[in-house]
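step 4 of 6: structure.
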Amino acid sequence: MAIEAIDLLNRRLLFVTGKGGVGKTTVAAGLGLLAAERGLRTLVCEVDAKGGLADFFEAPTTDFTPREVQPRLFAMSMDTEESLKEYLSLQLKIPLIARVGPLARTFDFIATAAPGVKEILTVGKLCWEVRERHYDLVVVDAVASGHIVGQLAAPQGINELVQVGLVRNQTGWMIDILRDPTQTGVVIVSAPEEMPVNETIELAARIDAETDVDLAAVVVNRVLPELFSRAEEEVFERLREPDRVATLSRVVDGDVGPVLDGAELAVTLRRTRAGHLTTLRERLPDDLAMLYLPYQFARTQGMRATRRIAESLGEELGF
Amino acid sequence: MAAPTRTPVEGDEDRARTLEQLLAAKEIAISCGAGGVGKTTAAAALGAMAATHLGGKVLVLTVDPARRLANALGLEQFGNTEIRVPDAAFAASGVEPRGELWAAMLDTKRSWDDLVRRHAPDPRTRDAILRNSLYENITGRFVQSHDYIAMERLYEIHTSGAYDLIVVDTPPTRNAIDFLEAPERMSEFFSSRLLRWLTAPSKSRVLSMASKPFYRVADTILGSQFLGDIAEFFSLFQTMAPGFVQRADAVARTLSDRRTTFLVVSTLESAPVREAEFFIAELDARGLHLGAVVLNKVLPAYLRRTATTGVARRLCADADTIAVKVADGVAPPDQVARVLHEVGESFLNYQVVAKRESEQRAEMARTPDLVATVPYFDADIHDLGGLLRLGEQIWR
Ligand SMILES: Nc1ncnc2c1ncn2[C@@H]1O[C@H](COP(=O)(O)OP(=O)(O)OP(=O)(O)O)[C@@H](O)[C@H]1O
Ligand SMILES: Nc1ncnc2c1ncn2[C@@H]1O[C@H](COP(=O)(O)OP(=O)(O)O)[C@@H](O)[C@H]1O
Ligand SMILES: [Mg+2]
Ligand SMILES: [Mg+2]
C-alpha cells in the first residue's frame, strides 16, 4: 500500500467525492492537514456551498480568498461568480474591472442555461491554481457522486460543444492537467453500508467510462472496530449463557445484561458491514488503493477530530 | 398551516396521534429529509403498512430505489408505470393485506419527454425539442428538473384518482426544499429575463449584445454559435410556456392541499437533524402540513442507561480479576479477560454515540406531536417482511 500512498500525496490535484454524508469534507480536511503537516503547501477547496469545511479547522467561514488555517494549509470555498471575475480580470484583461460586479451576476443567468459553464468555472479555477503552482497540492471537497462526473467531464464537453470562443481555448490546458494521473486523481469516500457501497461501485465505473480522470483511491470511512477474533467470539457466546450472566452480574455487582447486549449489537453491525466491504473490494479494480478510516465514537468535528482522521490516513498511507 | 395541536376527544384523552391515524386521513404523504436517512425505506414501509391495515389502493412512488428494495417488494424492477406488489410477497411474511400495494419509480427522462409531448403546440415543435442536442443536457440540470418531475408525476397520478393513498419518496436533492420550490421555479423561469433575452429575435439579440458589455463578454467567452444554439432551443421551449405554467401552479396547489402531509425523516446525527429542522421551518413558512417526524436508525435505549456505565467501566478496569472468577468452564482467564475488556469498552463507545443522539433529539427545535422512533436494525432490510417489521415499530 505504501507505494500507492506516496502516489496519492504526490499528485497535485485531488477531487474528494462520494455519496452525500459519507464523509467527503472529513476526508478532504484530513488529507489537507496530513499533506500540510508533511511539508506540502496545501489548498483545501470546498465546492459545495454547505460551508462545513471551516468547522474541521475551527476556522472562520471560508470564502473565495484562501485563508491559512494551519501552517502551510489554506482553505477556501468555490464561488463561480468570483471565479468568473477573476478569470475576466486575469485572462481577458478587459478594461471593465469596475463594472465586473453586475456583469458577473448577469452572467450567472447564462451560466445556468449553458451546460457546463458553471462546472468549467469551478474546474478551471482549481486547475489554474495547479498550473500556476501556487500550491504543492490542491484537495477539493468536491460535489457528491451524482454531479462529479458532469463536473470532471465539463472541459471535454465544452470543448466539443463550443466551436470558437475563449472558453474553448481555455479548455485545452485544463484537459491536459485533468487527464494526467501524475497530477490529478479522484478519491471516492465510501462507507461499509449497502447504499454507499453500491454508489461507489457505480461511480468508479462511470469515472472510468465517462471521464479521463484517474481514480486514485477509495477511502472507506466509518469502519467499525472488530471486537473479537473467532475464538474470542466463542468465549463471548459462552459468557452469554444465562447462568454465566448471573455469575458475572454478581461479580461486578450490577446487571451486565445490557453491556453484553451492546457488544452483541456491535458484533452484528460489524458483521453486516463486513459483507458490504467484501462486495466493495470484489467489485473494484484489484490494483485500486483502498484506505480504511475507523468510525469515530467520540467527537467528530473540530481540529482534534481532523487530526485523528489525518493520523489514520497517514497510517493507511504507510507514513 | 402549522401541524394541528392535538385536541383531546371525549373518551380518547390519552390516545396519542399515530401514523396509522394520519395516513388514514391523508391522500398524499411525502417522505423527505437528508440523503441516506431512510426516506425510501420509511416510504415503502408505511405504504406496505397502509395497504395491510387500512386497505384500499396504496401506491409507493419512489425515486432511484436500491435494487434490493424492488426485490423486497417482490418486483423484478420498477418502471414509470405502476406495478402491483403480488400478494405472494405479503404471504411470505404471513400477512394478508386488506388492500393493494402498488409501486412505481420515477423515470426522469421519460417523464420529461411525456411533458414535452403534452405541452408542445404542434408535432413539429415537439419533435424539434425532443431532437435538440441541448434538450437532454438542459432538462437534466435546469430548474431542479428532477424535483419538478417528481412533483409533476405525483400530481398526475393523484388527479387520476386511481389510489386512496400515495406515499412519495423524494429525490436525493442537495437541499431538501428544492423540490418544494421546483414548481414555482418552473413558472418563474418562463417569465425570466434570461428566457426573454435568449428567445428574442436573433437580430435584436445581436443589437442588444452589441450595446451591452455583458453580452459582448458572453459572446467572447461562449462564442456566438453556442449562444445561437442555446437561443434556438429556448425559442422552441418557450412555445410550451402556457401549459407548463398552468401545470406548475396546479402541482404547487397539490402540495399545499389539506389532503397532503409531509413526513420528515432523520437520523439523530447532527447534519441530518439540522437539515430536518430547516425543512420543518420551511414547511411552516409555506403553510404546508407537517404530519410526523420519523427518527430512524436510533440506537437502543439500554445503551443510554447510566447505571450500566459503572458496570461497563468495571469490566474494563478489573477485567483480569473478574475473569478469574468466571473463567471456569469457559476459556483460559486471560482470554476471558480480553473478551470482558472488549465488551465493556464497546459498550462505553456506543454509549457516547447514544447519548449524543439523545442530546440531538432534545435539541431539535420544533417537532410535531407525532414523533416516531425506528431502532437501528442490525441487519439490512431486504424483504417485505423487513419493511413490515420496521413499519410495525411506528404504526400505532
Ligand atoms: N469516521 C467517522 N466516524 C464517525 N463520524 C464521522 C466519520 N467521518 C465523518 N463523520 C461524521 O459524519 C458526518 C458527515 O460527514 P461530512 O460532513 O464529512 O460528510 P460529507 O460527505 O462532506 O457530507 P455532505 O454530502 O453533506 O457534504 C459529520 O457529522 C462527520 O463528523
Ligand atoms: N432503521 C434502520 N436500521 C438499519 N438500517 C436501515 C434502517 N432504515 C434504513 N436503513 C438502511 O439505510 C440505508 C439507506 O436507507 P434509504 O431508505 O435508502 O435512505 P434514503 O432514501 O433516505 O436515502 C438502506 O441500506 C437501508 O436499508
Ligand atoms: Mg461536505
Ligand atoms: Mg432514497
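step 5 of 6: annotate
 - Residues 1-9 of chain B have pLDDT under 50 and may be disordered.
 - The longest strand of chain B covers residues 290-298.
step 6 of 6: archive
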